[in-house]
Structure formats: structure tokens, C-alpha cells
Specification:
alpha+beta; about 20% strand; about 110 residues; globular; 4 strands; about 50% helix
Length: about 110
């Protein structure tokens, strides 16, 4: 990550988290409750990096963790419910806002439970 991102990483995380919360609220207003199927979603920094790189350290400072199997940084727990739709909406909103602020693209991954 360049110096611009390191300075703005905490702001980007805070704004992206607000966007994720807003997306969940919007889904709740639209659907009234969680849909019937369960699942998980998370955001991933898509490039393969070393876990001791500056990028990994900067992401770690805002709550990303190292996935040793995939050799990538990921952030889980943006939505604490069971709905896959809600979790994906929160992650998409987080990724979009994070890219808007920092210029770094995050991928959304999910799985049905």
C-alpha cells in the first residue's frame, strides 16, 4: 500500500463499515426480515501478498486476517446474522466504499451454510 492508503486506511475502514451497516438496514427495510437460507460472506484483498508485507500489515491494522490456505488477507464479520443475502450486501457495500476511498479493489466471497 502506498503512503496515501496507509494514512487513510482507518478512515476508509470506518466509512466502509458504515456503508455495510447501511446496506444491512436497507435490506431489512426492503425484506422485513432475514430470508430463510443461511450463509457467510467476507471480503478479500485479491492479490497474493506476503503476510509480512506493508500491505498486509496495513490491512491487519484495520481488522483483516491472514488466510494461510489462500495466501491472502480477508475480513469477516461485517454482518453478524445468518442471512447470506444480508451478508453479501454488507460485504459488497464495504468493498465498494473501500475502493472509492483508497482505490484498492476487494473481492466478495461467500458460501451457503
Amino acid at each position: 500500500m502506498n503512503a496515501y492508503v496507509e494514512v487513510d486506511q482507518f478512515t476508509a475502514n470506518a466509512e466502509a463499515t458504515k456503508a455495510a451497516e447501511h446496506a444491512v438496514t436497507t435490506m431489512l427495510l426492503k425484506h422485513g426480515s432475514e430470508p430463510a437460507y443461511c450463509g457467510f460472506a467476507w471480503v478479500v484483498y485479491p492479490e497474493r501478498i506476503r503476510k509480512n508485507s506493508q500491505t498486509a500489515k496495513a490491512l491487519s491494522a484495520i481488522g483483516f486476517t491472514w488466510n494461510d490456505y489462500a495466501k491472502c488477507m480477508e475480513k469477516r464479520g461485517l454482518y453478524h446474522g445468518q442471512s447470506l443475502d444480508f451478508a453479501e450486501a454488507a460485504c459488497r457495500a464495504y468493498a465498494d466504499k473501500f475502493k472509492e476511498i483508497t482505490g484498492f479493489r476487494l473481492n466478495v466471497r461467500s458460501r451457503v451454510d
